[in-house]
Amino acid sequence: MKTTRLFLCLVAFLSATFAENPADAEELVHFESAPVKLSPFRISKAREQGEILSQPQGTPLLGYLSRPRGDGPFPAVVVLHGCEGMRLSVKELWPKRLISWGYVVLVVDSFTTRDIKDTCQGHLPDRVFDAYGALSFLSKQSFVDIRRVALMGFSTGGTATLEGTKIEGNEQLMDQKFRAAVAYYPLCAATQGDATVPILILTGDRDNWSPADRCRKRLSNLSDDSPPIELNVYKGTYHDFDAPEFKVGRKVLGHIEKYNPDAAAKSIRSVRTFLQSYLSN
């Protein structure tokens, strides 16, 4: 009898504790990519020609939502995976790290609902709209401070991050805006120029999949009015250097992917400082 009472008391205590402090475990959520909005020019031309335009629709997506304990509202980070899909470090390690720093995290799964296995050798969907669909989803959550949300991407997700925060890109058509962006080993567009938000780019000098020189050339094209773009290039470092699942290293389509613990640690510190600088208030 005493054992039963103790067990019931323990259950009651744990239930009350978790009711007051929501678990930070990931939750599978459903949302849509932002619809491809029509430009004012396209709308005006349709009116001139008497054309009836259909309402644009988004693509159904899945996401993994994690949050710190408490009611918030918290700053948040939207995460975009690379061409291989939802690897361990993107789906689990980075969210746990970001939660410990006080951020809500939404990792966007761009492949499952599109029945895509990987896009390393094929066509990529326009994932900029996935990122802004995730931002729209977060804007409806009471525990998120929608004024303080960053976009963070890895490899092709990093490239989409840069595409989604460039001057005169699709960002100008979106209702909500990101506050800052982090891109791990993206393929920079050397002629892209200015950004719409502060950006941190992290890459390796031996990465021949996402050459650092292209990022350096982009920075050389920035105007005096552009938000800052910080480029950290780590010596002796390859693609996926932050991912401990690649400790042994591997070659994919002629490109080396290999974990570098020293570069990973330095980059993690840089990301934390960068997010604190731009999402603190």
Protein architecture, described:
By secondary structure, the chain is an alpha/beta fold. The strands form two sheets. Strands 1-2-4-3-5-6-7-8 form an eight-stranded mixed beta sheet, sandwiched between helices. Strands 9-10 form a two-stranded antiparallel ribbon. Helix 6 links the parallel strand 7 (199-204) and strand 8. The chain is built from seven helices and ten strands.
What's the arrangement of secondary structure elements?
Layout: H1 2-20, E1 27-32, H2 40-48, E2 60-66, E3 74-80, H3 88-100, E4 104-109, H4 128-139, E5 144-154, H5 156-163, E6 180-184, E7 199-204, H6 212-220, E8 229-234, E9 250-252, E10 255-257, H7 261-279
Parallel strand pairs: 3-4, 3-5, 5-6, 6-7, 7-8
Antiparallel strand pairs: 1-2, 2-4, 9-10
Largest sheet: 8 strands, mixed
Strand percentage, roughly? 15-25%
Q: Note poorly predicted spans.
A: 1-23
Shape type: globular
Secondary-structure-based class equals alpha/beta
- The topology string of helices and strands comes to HEHEEHEHEHEEHEEEH
- What is the helix tally? 7
GO molecular function, one term: hydrolase activity
Pfam families: DLH (PF01738)
Protein name: Dienelactone hydrolase
Keywords: Hydrolase, Signal
Short description:
This protein has 281 residues and is an alpha/beta fold. The protein is built from 7 helices and 10 strands. The strands form 2 sheets. An 8-stranded mixed beta sheet has the order 1-2-4-3-5-6-7-8, with helices on both faces. A two-stranded antiparallel sheet has the order 9-10.
